[in-house]
Structure formats: C-alpha cells, structure tokens
Design goal:
The protein is mostly beta strands. It has a single domain, classed as Jelly Rolls (Sandwich). It has strands at about 15-25, 30-35, 40-50, 55-60, 65-75, 75-80, 85-90, 95-100, 105-115. The protein is elongated and about 45 Å long.
Length: about 120
C-alpha cells in the first residue's frame, strides 16, 4: 500500500494585539505610520477609520507598494475598512502607513496585530 503524505501550511502565530491613533496636517511628504514595523513579522490592520478635514485622496501602503488603492474623500468625511476585512502587509518587517495626495488634516484609528512569518512550503513544485 502506498503512503500518502499531506503537507499543510502552518497557521501564523498572532502576536502584539494593538490599538493606535494618529493625525497629521500633511501626510503627502511624510507618510503617517499606522502600524510600526516588527522584524520577522507581517503587520495586519483589523479595523481602520480614516477621517479628513479637506477633500483629499489617500493610499494605505508600505515601502513595498500600495495595499489599498487611492481612495478619494470629500471634505469632513471618513473612510472605514469594511467589517470582517483586514489589510495585510505585503512583506515581512514593513510598517503600514497612510499617504495623502496633498496637504490637509488627516487622522486615523486602527486596531492591528502582527503575524509571525511562516516559510512558504511550496506545495506545488
């Protein structure tokens, strides 16, 4: 009888549940940090509310690229990450941040966690 071997990916360990807030008058030149980088871990945002004072566009990104494409907000409005969705960093050890299209007041509230990086098992060689 032939043996059957099944490989599965290990579920990432969740660490450092956190809550953060921040604000900036201009997040176009210097991005607003939402979740700090943690070596060997991937940052994940579980809840996010972004509020702006003037009409502006924003992206949620890392130095590795955009995680949420450009979103436009009218003056004095907010954007909320849909319930049950998350924003996961695109690489290990990168911070998640908000960048705006220009000057204007922007603030955020976020709940986040980190996942320990798990090596890819390459299930389909």
């Amino acid at each position: 009888m032939a043996a059957l071997t099944i490989q599965t990916k290990e579920k990432p360990a969740v660490v450092n549940l956190a809550q953060s807030t921040g604000k900036s008058a201009d997040a176009s030149g210097t991005p607003l940090s939402v979740v700090a980088a943690l070596a060997g871990h991937i940052a994940v945002i579980d809840k996010l509310v972004i509020t702006v004072g003037s009409a502006i566009s924003f992206t949620v990104n890392t130095t590795g690229g955009e995680l949420v494409d450009s979103q436009y907000l009218a003056a004095n409005t907010s954007w909320t990450l849909p319930q049950g969705m998350s924003i996961r960093g695109n690489a290990v050890g990168l911070a998640i941040r908000i960048t705006t299209s220009g000057a204007g007041n922007v603030s955020f509230f976020a709940q986040s966690h980190y996942e320990k990086a798990v090596p890819d098992l390459n299930l389909y060689p």
